[in-house]
Amino acid sequence: MALPGLSLPGLGLNSTPTPVYSGPVPPPSEQIARREDLPPQAEWRFEAAFSQQYSIRVLHGHAELFGVELANNQTYNLSGCKGAVFTWQGCQLEVTGEAESEYAAQETEYAVEWLNLHGMLETARDDRPNDGPRVLLVGPDHTGKSSLVRTLAAWAVRNGRTPTVVNLDPREGLLAPPSSLTAVTVGSQMDVENGFGISPISGPTITAVKTPLIYHYPYASPTDRPALYKALLTRIALGTINKLEEDPSAKQSGILIDTPGTLNDPKTGYDTLHHLVSEFSITLILTLGSERLYNDLHRRYAAGKTPDEALPVLKLAKPGGAIERDAGYMKQLRTRQIRQYFFGTARESLNPHSHMLGFDDMTVYRAKPTSADTAEKTSFGAAEEDDYDPSGNGSMVSANAVFEKVAPSVAMMGSTIAIKFCPANSEEFTVRDSAVMGYLYVADVDEARKKVRFLAPHPQRWGDRALVWGQWPEAVADLVT
Ligand SMILES: Nc1ncnc2c1ncn2[C@@H]1O[C@H](COP(=O)(O)OP(=O)(O)OP(=O)(O)O)[C@@H](O)[C@H]1O
Where is the chain membrane-spanning (predicted)? Predict the structure, then answer.
């Protein structure tokens, strides 16, 4: 099967399939299945741990999880998930397993607000078929931005649309490991258990998903390397908008952009936010959970402007169920995402391949750490800003280079490595700006024999490409057992 994002020329001959490891299996629950009756417009909120089995089945009525309708009598495994099964007309659920927290909630006004928003976007799609809505979601962490994007995308797909979802939060990957900035046109309904899917080769359905456009931002926060982040925003905006030009239905369906909470900070985030609005030619801004952000953006983009000039800014409340995810949970989530990118899930396993390469057969660029660079930390982007070159023509030689060529070493073990769509010995700005072909996992480094064993989702070799070893996400030690 062709591998979107990794369909590379040049066959690797010493590639061997690696045994599938699908992660720790939650112990079977001794708890008896119980029934929960939900009245109309109520939701079953739950926080299920990674180590516990937790499943939900709809026995009667209709229910959905982040906009995706749950099939009746099908058991959905929701271990390691925090969310809410919502019902418009009422339903009966069968819940099995233990959750850290679970309850029926009836304060769900947010759902009506979201549905109205969906109706508004549908009207905009019908009114301007050649220019679908380009929606930017901003707000502090844990205010429901990703949930809203997922829900709006799912509802749009239910209406036969093909929205393009853009994830600009490097802490959470979309069809790729964390550190990815992804744009993907969603052509089929999402998966209840895995949302948009787990990797480009696995879709929510058997039908292949459309090829995502992936860029690599190898740091946790946009404020770590604002200039690099902005350069990548320019690339992903250009790439997405160009792609939509070739696909009228996707263009009409529009773009939904999820952003990290750090952009909500006036000192360190607004500059990037304005850059984002301009690069994507945003037509609607949605703020979640922050009055201040709403007022700041409304003042800048809407207040006192003529209807033609104004960019509408809407304020949405944070859903009552949206909760903070602590550092430990987020780390487990990242580990699971990385594992699933290579090995798939219990339902849909992937068969990664092992590639042994000599040190001389690869060119590795290391993203430099930022912590020592106090100037950059204290003034947003000041130290780097001069290097920002959206044209990408390389006319500026970087004094504050983000990447440096390094020799492979044991320090790489357990890291994910981005394969860039550029030749191994490219200029730094080319390495920076190139999209990602796919990711590798460093399974082993033998410094004595000068060999690295990579795990890749595909048997083909990637040829003469630059490999980027990021500062983010952290290494995962036990992916291969
Ligand atoms: N109505 C709800 N009921 C229960 N849980 C919810 C609800 N809405 C969202 N959540 C959960 O709350 C958590 C935070 O929500 P979400 O990820 O959508 O916020 P976010 O603003 O995108 O956060 P971040 O910026 O940190 O990515 C998630 O685990 C999500 O599944």
Answer: none
Question: From the CB of residue 134, how many other CB atoms can be counted at a distance below 10 Å?
Answer: 23
- The ligand 1 site (C-beta within 6 Å) comprises 43, 45, 82-84, 139, 141-147, 169, 172, 260-261, 319, 321-323, 325
For the chain, which domains are there? Answer: 15-21+329-469 (2.40.30.330), 34-106 (2.60.120.1030), 109-316 (3.40.50.300)
Reported as a single tens digit per residue, the pLDDT across 9-27 is 322 323 444 444 445 545 5
For the segment 367-410, what is each residue's pLDDT rounded down to a tens digit? Answer: 999 864 444 443 333 344 445 555 544 444 455 689 999 999 99
Instruction: Kindly state the tokens that stand for 229.
Output: 């982040």
In angstroms, what is the span from residue 416 Cα to ligand 1's centroid? Answer: 26
- Report CA(143)–ligand 1 centroid distance (Å): 6
The packing angle between helices 270-279 and 291-301, to 10°, is 50
- Is the pLDDT at 215 greater than 70, yes or no? yes
